[in-house]
Amino acid sequence: MPVAGAKRSDKVNEIYKSNPKHTLGQTGNRPNAGIEPKNSFELFENSFQSGNKRYSIDSDGNIHQFTHTNKGDNTWHWAGRTGKDQAVDQRLKGNNIPQDVIKHFNLNPKKVKKL
After folding, report:
1. Residue 9, Cβ neighbours under 10 Å: how many?
2. d(C-alpha 106, C-alpha 71), whole Å
């Protein structure tokens, strides 16, 4: 699991922890859950908050989404990404990316909608 224990990001002043459902071989891993990248904490540290989600972009241009647990531990976890190499039921759809995220990362809205 990329980040097994809760870890605070000084950059975004939030706490991050991997969710086992996104790690192969972990208890609770589901076939329809995307696989969390090894650099998820780095992506989280460079994320932008929009509503109750955070978003980041990797070196390949994929947009990653992070979700707040809304539980007592007050942590965030990786929750999917765009990318044609992702299984369709695991892929974050471009038309679900908020406009303020597209603006923040200076992305082409037409290209994002096609992701």
Report:
1. 16
2. 32
> Is residue 31 a contact partner of residue 38, using CB atoms and an 8 Å limit?
no
Strand pairing partners for 54? 49, 66
> Across the strands, what pairs with 91?
81
Tokens of 63: 């947009």
What's the whole-model pTM score? 0.86
Helices (H), the chain: 40-45, 99-104, 109-113
Strands 76-81 and 63-68: antiparallel
Give the separation between CA 78 and CA 18, rounded to whole angstroms: 7
d(CA 17, CA 60): 23
pLDDT tens digits, residue range 35-93? 788 899 999 999 999 999 999 999 999 999 999 987 777 899 989 999 888 878 888 99
